[in-house]
Amino acid sequence: MTQVSLDILIDKARSGYLVSFPTDTVPALAVRPDRSDLIFEAKRRGQDKPLILMGASSDDLWPFCRGSAQELQLWQKIADRYWPGALTLVLPASGKVPPAVNPADPSTIGLRVPNSAIARQILAQTGPLATTSANLSGQPALQTMSEIEAQFPEVLTLAATELELTNAGGGVPSTVAKWTGNSWEILRQGAVKLEV
């Protein structure tokens, strides 16, 4: 049985264990960024598919990217408009990002602040975590903690009593927008329609 209380989940995530929790889109598999290899292993995921860093606030995430003062201002404007929410911004990575988060292209990093109180409560105490949808690579995202528990018995999930606090996700993945240096390229159209 891998269902645990919120406090234990937070403590174990800080210690480097693989955890899962609900977000505003689909449930996340999450781990400390320096232990990202655990997600690639568990999902049987190719190294060419990067993870994203999820944080409790944009301020927690900006240290993981680098850009000019103008770019940072522009990114902040987008973040203020869409975060918390189902938008992942792919930005130039700073030296603070462990290469294991994006092995194929460590020069970029996806960042997101979920519109989920329980996810932000966890992330506020763990710091940003490397995340992805909870599913085996190439398969549909799992939607419930019991499905996650069945497919990933080693992953810690929240006990059902803790889940009463959550607002369940809509099941639609986040929109992924990559900064190209002067504009946004939509890599995946998801729940949010980006207007710039």
From TrEMBL:
**InterPro entries per the record?**
DHBP_synth_RibB-like_a/b_dom (IPR017945), Sua5-like_dom (IPR006070), TC-AMP_synthase_SUA5 (IPR050156)
The record ties this protein, via Gene3D superfamilies, to:
DHBP synthase (3.90.870.10)
* Record keyword ATP-binding present: yes
Listed GO molecular functions? ATP binding; double-stranded RNA binding; L-threonylcarbamoyladenylate synthase; tRNA binding
What is this protein identified as?
L-threonylcarbamoyladenylate synthase
Taxonomy-wise, where does this protein's organism fall, top ranks first? Bacteria, Bacillati, Cyanobacteriota, Cyanophyceae, Oscillatoriophycideae
For this protein, what reaction is catalysed? L-threonine + hydrogencarbonate + ATP = L-threonylcarbamoyladenylate + diphosphate + H2O
The UniProt record lists the YrdC-like domain at 3-192
The entry sums up its family as follows:
Belongs to the SUA5 family.
Q: Which GO terms describe its cellular component?
A: cytoplasm
- Tell me its EC number(s), please: 2.7.7.87
Task: Read off the SUPFAM superfamilies from this record.
Answer: YrdC/RibB
Q: Which organism does this record belong to? A: Aerosakkonema funiforme FACHB-1375
Q: Which UniProt keywords apply?
A: ATP-binding, Cytoplasm, Nucleotide-binding, Nucleotidyltransferase, Transferase, tRNA processing
Q: What is the protein's major site of localization?
A: cytoplasm
Q: Write out the GO biological process terms.
A: regulation of translational fidelity; tRNA processing
Where is this protein localized, as stated in its record? Cytoplasm
